[in-house]
Specification:
CATH architecture of the domain at 31-109 and 434-457: 2-Layer Sandwich
Radius of gyration: 23 Å
Structural class: alpha+beta
Strand content: 15-25%
CATH topology of the domain at 31-109 and 434-457: Transcription Regulator spoIIAA
Length: 503
């Protein structure tokens, strides 16, 4: 099976994963908590200017009536910024980012605090007299009425009990630390606060290890995966039997593989490149199970993205010959030339002395403010890579939802080309028009927040033929809020006789 979206997605990275890496480079530049900061109006103007300079989606899509709507909404934000000061400006800037509705465009909060500020915040941390035994007893006694976010959650060594906020309004919750997370965080400390916004959606305040406060959009996928963008928590208790085995008990980012009654179930919460070796190992150990399986189910619900090659070892068990036509048009990827983009290209694509990077940098410097091809137009492109199918399992189901984003959507597109695949669930996030994120300052005097933006554009014809706002549609729509056990549903559907396709 040919992977037609390469090379532009071979360097794909999700916003969640890149921001973590960039934080280490930017945090040392941050001022202390008492340092001077620009006004909210200045920040808003600077952020808009950097979006116009670096974000291809603004250049290609904000035109005509859409530009008029943008100017009207921006004016309202400007008036709001005039009334806003301090760290509350974050919400004004975030609203500007959200206007574009692009999963790869985001506002990144840094975690830099000096020692004195960390010490001050440590003295004022809120606490709650709750231990694990009390928490579990509460969850058991209230099993029928628990909110989806209530329970024991983990992120590596971090373990917390999320319970209703005893001092808050209905729909508010606190995450209470159950085990020591560091030398300065102790059991009973409140590490996060949640405000319910809708079904499985929350506004989150999260304190990092140094007590830096971060704001997160929390969304629960497949009942046991809490995406905090960036970040993933896994649910440890209570977990319904139908949802067991979908997460690694030590690290919720890792893939899992289980075999049940002749069906192999692979759950991939993240395409982080560091998990590639784990999936490769699972596939290698279970090669015989995969070859002999009647059905293979690949669960991509809530997948945060990462690198598209992370799941390459699974593709031979998904692919088929012949294959269906590609869903997306295969136009050449481009980059918008700007100073930030040139700096990104110098660090992202390998040694600056390599032929590819040297050629790309030359094109970008020769055409400032314009779109340039990612690959050298004078060179013959590499032949597309292909996958040799392994004929087993006989039927493959891919389970998706709105949390299936970025590199995991590449896997969905590749899977849709296979004649033995049926995709179930709800449309994906639609994050492949603008890809591969970078983080940059938007103001030389602002060190609290940075702009995360996508660096590679799939086509200069966008938004024509784009997927943003629509995502990838499933072959079989499943209302995941109503189906108690989506895995069992897919398994039963795959066992039914194959119906001829009409597309």
């Amino acid at each position: 099976m040919t992977q037609r979206l390469i090379p532009m997605v071979r360097i794909l990275r999700s916003a969640a994963l890149v921001s973590t890496a960039i934080a280490a480079r930017t945090s040392a530049q941050q001022p202390t908590a008492t340092g001077a900061a620009p006004s909210c109006q200045e920040d808003l103007r600077a952020l808009r200017g950097r979006i116009e300079q670096d974000y291809a989606g603004y250049r290609l899509e904000v035109k005509g009536e859409k530009l008029q709507r943008f100017e009207k909404d921006y004016a309202a934000l400007g008036a709001r910024a005039a009334r806003t000061s301090g760290n509350d400006c974050y919400f004004v800037l975030k609203e500007l980012i959200q206007w574009f509705d692009d999963p790869h465009l985001f506002l990144y909060e840094t975690s830099r605090l000096d020692t004195a500020e960390t010490t001050r915040r440590a003295r004022s941390v809120a606490t709650m007299p709750l231990d694990e035994a009390k928490a579990r007893a509460y969850f058991v006694s209230h099993a029928r009425t628990l909110d989806p976010v209530e329970g024991i959650w983990y992120d590596g060594p971090l373990r917390l009990a999320v319970v209703p906020d005893p001092a808050g309004a209905k729909g508010t919750f606190v995450a209470v630390l159950l085990t020591d997370d560091s030398t300065i965080w102790h059991p009973g400390a409140i590490r996060a606060r949640f405000v319910r916004l809708g079904a499985g959606r929350y506004d989150v305040q999260l304190w990092e290890r140094n007590y830096a406060l971060h704001h997160r959009d929390g969304v629960i996928y497949k009942h046991v995966l809490l995406r905090l963008s960036p970040g993933i928590w896994g649910k440890e208790f209570p977990v319904a039997r139908a949802d067991s085995g979908l997460l690694d008990p030590a690290d919720a980012h890792r893939p899992t593989l289980v075999v049940r009654n002749g069906t192999v179930i692979v759950s991939i919460p993240s395409h982080d490149g560091g998990n590639k070796r784990i999936l490769d190992s699972l596939v290698r150990v279970h090669d015989e199970d995969l070859r002999n399986a009647g059905q293979l189910i690949v669960d991509l619900r809530g997948n945060e993205g990462g690198g598209s090659q992370m799941s390459a070892s699974l593709m031979p068990y998904i692919a088929s010959e012949p294959q269906r036509p590609p869903l997306l048009s295969q136009t050449e990827a481009v980059m918008l030339s700007s100073d930030d983009q040139i700096a990104y290209a110098r660090r992202a694509f390998g040694p600056e002395t390599s032929k590819f990077v040297t050629s790309l940098l030359a094109r970008m410097r020769e055409h400032p403010g314009q779109f340039v091809p990612l690959s050298d137009p004078a060179e013959v492109p590499d032949p597309p890579t292909s996958v040799t199918p392994i004929h087993g399992p006989r039927r493959v189901g891919v389970l998706i939802d709105r949390g299936t984003v970025s590199a995991s959507e590449v896997l969905v597109l590749d899977a849709l080309r296979s004649e033995r695949v049926t995709v179930f669930g709800e449309p994906t996030a639609g994050a492949l028009d603008y890809q591969s994120t970078s983080i940059t300052e938007f103001s030389p005097s602002e060190r609290r927040w940075f702009l995360g933006y996508p660096t590679i554009t799939r086509s200069v014809a966008l938004p024509s033929g784009g997927m943003r706002g629509r995502g990838i549609a499933p072959t079989v729509h499943v209302d995941l809020a109503r189906v108690q056990d989506p895995i069992a549903f897919v398994e039963q559907e795959l066992k039914k006789p194959v119906r001829p396709r009409t597309d």
